Amino acid sequence: MGIETPIVVLSIIAGAYMAWNIGANDVANSMASAVGAKAITLMQAVVIAGVLTFVGATFVGSHVTQTIRKGIIDSAEMGDPHQIVLGLLAALLAAALWVFFATVKSLPVSTTHSIVGAMVGFGLVVGGPSVVNWTKLATIVSGWILSPILAGIAAFVLFRLIERLVLSRLDTLEGAVSVTPILVALAVFIMTLALFMKTPIAQKLNIHGIGMLGIPLAVSIGVYLICLPALKYLLPRSKVTGAEGIFRYLQVMTSCYVALGNGANDVANAMGPLSGIYFIVTTGSVAQEVPVPIFILAFGGIAITIGILTYGYRVIETLGTKITQLTNSRGFTIDFSTASIVLCASMLGLPVSTTHAAVGAYVGVGLARGLEALDLRILRRIVIYWIITVPASAATCAAIYLLLRAIF
Amino acid sequence: MGFSLLNLLKGSPFEKAHDHAVIVGNCGPIFLRAVESYFSGDRASFELLKEEIRDIEAEADKIKQNIRAHLPPAILMPVDKSLFFSFLREADKVVDCMKNALYWLSYVNLVLPPNILKHYLLLVREDADFLGFLPEMVARANTYFRTRQEKDREAVKDVVKEIRFREQQSDDVEKTILVRICADEAIPPKDFFLMVRLIETTGDIADHLENAADMVRAMVSR
Question: What CATH class does B11-219 carry?
C-alpha cells in the first residue's frame, strides 16, 4: 500500500463529511422558509431536498473544477504535486473540522467560506503570501458582503411590491393573477439563464452568444403567456380563495429550485478538492482545472442527501414553534430573492453562501415590515462567525498540512 | 444541533399582547358584578370580586412586563416599538382603572342618589360590555400583522371605529352623571369628592381603551 491510499481514504472521508454538512445545514436552511410557511410538510421538504439536491449535484453540478477552489492560490507556483495533494487534503480536513465544530456548537458558518479559508491557509503555509491571489480573494469576499445586502434589497423591494400590488387589494386573488405570472416568468428566466451559463447543457446544445440570453428570454415570455390565461381559467375552478394559495405553489417551485441549485453549486465545496486529489493521484500531474468524474459528483450527491435525511430535518423540526410568522408570500419572497442573488453571483463566478444570502432576505422582509419579530442578534452572530471562519479554517489547514507533511 | 435560519424569527409579541388583552377583557363582567354587589349591599361578594380584579391586574402586569422584557432593541418589529409599548401601557391602564374604582368604593360606604346610581350602573355596564372589544381588536391586529392583507386591516379599522363610537357614548354618560352630581346641592363635600373620583376613574376605562385603539390604528396605518 503506497502513501496515496491513506491520503485518498482520508480525502474521501473529509469530502463526504463536507457534503454531509451541506445537506445537514445548508440545504435544511434553504428549505426552512417553505416548511415554515407550511407550503410543504417536513417530510415533503426532506424528499424534495434529497432528490433534487442529488440531481443537482450529480447532473447539473460543474463537471470541471479548478484544482485549487476558484483559483485562490496559484497551483503552478507550488510545483510538487505531492505537496498539492497534501494541501488539498489538509484543506478538506480543516474545513470539515471547522464545520463539524460549528455544527456541534450551532454556529452559523458556511461550508463555502470554510473551504475558501482553508485554501488560503494552505497557500500561505506552502508558498507564502505571493501564491495567494489576493485580488481574487478580495472579489470573493466582496461577494460575501454583497450577496446578503443584495438579497436583502431584493427581498425588501419584492415584498413591498407584493404588498402594494397584491396584499393591499381587497381581492388579493385578482392582484395575484396579474402579478404572479410576471414573477414566475422572472424566476424561469433566471433559472434558465443559470442552467445555460453554469452547466454543460449549453455546450451540448451548441448554444452560445445571443442564444444564451435569447433562449431564456423566449422561454420566460412563453411561460408568462401560458401562466396568465392558465391562472385565469383554473382559479375559478379551484379551491384557492386568496393570494396566499397561489404563492404556496410559487414557493414550492422556488424551493425546488433552491434545492437543485444548492446541490449544483455547493457540491464542488466538498468534491472539488477531492477531484483534484483524485486527478493528481491517478495522473501524477497538476492542472489548474481538472474534470470532476460523474461518480465523484454522485458520491457528493449521495452524501448531501444522507445529510438531509439523517440530520437536516432536525434543524427545521426543532424550531417548529417559531415558524408561525412565515406566510407563503413571505416564504416565496425569501426563497426567490435568495435563489436569484445566489444564481447571479454564481454566474459571475463568486462562491457565495446560500445561507447568508437567505439571512439578507429575511432581514429585507423584516425591514419591509413583513415579519412580526426578527432577532437581529442572530445577524450579529452570523457576521462574527463569518469573519472568524476564514482565519480559523486557514490556521487549522496550515496546522494540518504541517502535520500531514511530517507524516507523509 | 446545527444552525437554523429560523432562529432569526422570534415568537410574535402580538400573540402575547392578545393574551394580555383577553385577561383585561375578562375583567369587564367581574367589574360589573362587583359594582352591582356593592350597591345592593352585598359587601362580602364585592370584596371577593375586588380581590379577583386585583389578582387579574397583577397577572396582566406580569404579562406586560414579560412582553417588554423579551423585546430588546435588537428585535425588529413591523411597528414602532415605542408605539407598541404605549399600546400595552394603555391596555394595562384599563384594568388599573377598574381596580382603582373598586378601591375607592371599598374605602367608604358610598350611597349614590337613585338618579345618579341608575346612570352610574349604565356607565359600568357600557364599560364592561365595551371591554370585549379589546381582545377582538388585538386578535384582528394580530391577524393583520401575520397576513398584511387589506381585508384584515379593514377589520382592525372597523373595531377601532366601534371603540371610538362607544367611548363617545360612555363619555356622554359620564358627563351626564357629573352634571347631576354638581347640580345636587345636598351631597356632602366628602361624598361629592368620592363620587367625582369614582365617576372619573370609571370613565377613564373607556378613555384608556380608546387610547389603546388609537395606537393600534397608528400601528396598522400604511
Answer: mainly alpha
